[in-house]
Amino acid sequence: MTSRPLIAGNWKMNLNREAATHLAQELAGAVGAAAAFEMAVCPPAPYLVPVAEVLGGSLVALGAQDCHAAASGAHTGDVSAAMLQDVGCTYVIVGHSERRADHGETDEQVRAKAAAARAAGLVPIVCVGETESQRDAGTTLDVVGRQIAGSIPDGLDGATLVVAYEPVWAIGTGRTPTVDDVAAVHAHIRKTLSARTADAPGVRILYGGSVKPSNAVELLAVANVDGALVGGASLKAADFLAIARSV
Ligand code: PEP
C-alpha cells in the first residue's frame, strides 16, 4: 500500500440536513495536512450537495453509498456515478451487505456498478463479507474469495479501487472477528486480488464492522488492514476522529 490508510464513514440512512452539515464541519475543521490517514464521509444522497459545500477546500473527501450501473436513463429513484462525480464525490460504496440483502444485489451487479464508478472517475469501495452461518460453516474464505472474484472489474489498481471486508454479522452488532481472523481474511483478499489486478499490493483493504474508538488501534494494526469503513461510530465527530487517529 502506498497511499495513506483510508478511514471512511458510512452514514447510511441517518441524520438530517443540519446534523449532516454540522458533522461535516466538525470533521473538516479537525483534519489537517499532517494527518496519517485519509478521511472520507458517505452521507445519504440528499445531503451530498450540502455536505460537499461544507467540505469544499478541506481534506475530507466525499463519497456516496451506492450508484446505478447505467450512465443515465429510465431508472426511477436511482443515481448515476457521473451525477455523483458531478456533485463532488471521490468515492462510492458498492455492494454493501445491506444493499446485497435489501435489494438482492449480486456480485455481477456490484461489478457493473464498480465499473460504472470507474468510468465516471470515481473510486469504488467494493464491500464483501460472510454471513454468520457462512462463518459457522467454515466457508468464510471461499465466500469472500468468490465475492472478490465476482464483484471487482479487471484493470483497476491502488489508485482506482478500495475493498472493504465487512463480516455481515459484525455490522452494527458490537461484535468483531478476532485479529487473527481479520488477518486471515485480509491476506486471502490480497491474494485473490492478484487475479484481478496487477497492483494487488497497492489496493487498500478496509476492515468494517463495529469499529469503535476502543477497538480501532488493534484492528488497524492487523497486517493488510489499510483503513476502516465505519458505520455507527462515524456519526459522532469525536468517535470518528478517535478512530482515524488510531492509524
Ligand atoms: C457498515 O455498515 O459499513 C458498518 C461498518 O457499520 P458499523 O460500523 O455500524 O458496524
Please tell me about this protein's structure.
Helix content is 38%, strand content 15%. With 247 residues, it is an alpha/beta fold. An eight-stranded parallel beta barrel has the order 1-2-3-4-5-6-7-8, surrounded by six helices. Strand 6, helix 8 and strand 7 form a beta-alpha-beta unit. Helix 5 packs across helix 7 and helix 9 runs parallel beside helix 10. The longest helix is centred in the last third of the chain and has 15 residues. The relative contact order is 0.16. It binds phosphoenolpyruvate. Phosphoenolpyruvate binds next to strand 8. The site of phosphoenolpyruvate has 13 residues, from strand 8.
Write the layout of secondary structure elements.
Elements: E1 6-10, H1 17-30, E2 38-42, H2 48-55, E3 60-64, H3 81-86, E4 91-94, H4 97-102, H5 107-119, E5 123-128, H6 132-136, H7 140-151, E6 162-165, H8 179-193, E7 204-208, H9 213-220, E8 227-230, H10 237-244
Helix pairs in contact: 1-2, 5-7, 7-8, 9-10
Amount of helix:
25-40%
Q: Largest sheet, order of strands side by side?
A: 1-2-3-4-5-6-7-8
Number of helices: 10
| Termini Cα gap | 14 Å
Structural class: alpha/beta
Enumerate the distinct ligands.
phosphoenolpyruvate
H/E topology pattern: EHEHEHEHHEHHEHEHEH
Described by strand count, sense and barrel closure, the largest sheet is: 8 strands, parallel, barrel
Average of pLDDT: 97
Strand content: 15-25%
Give the low-confidence spans.
Answer: none
Shape: globular
How many strands? 8
The radius of gyration computed from the alpha-carbon positions, rounded to a whole number of angstroms, is 17 Å
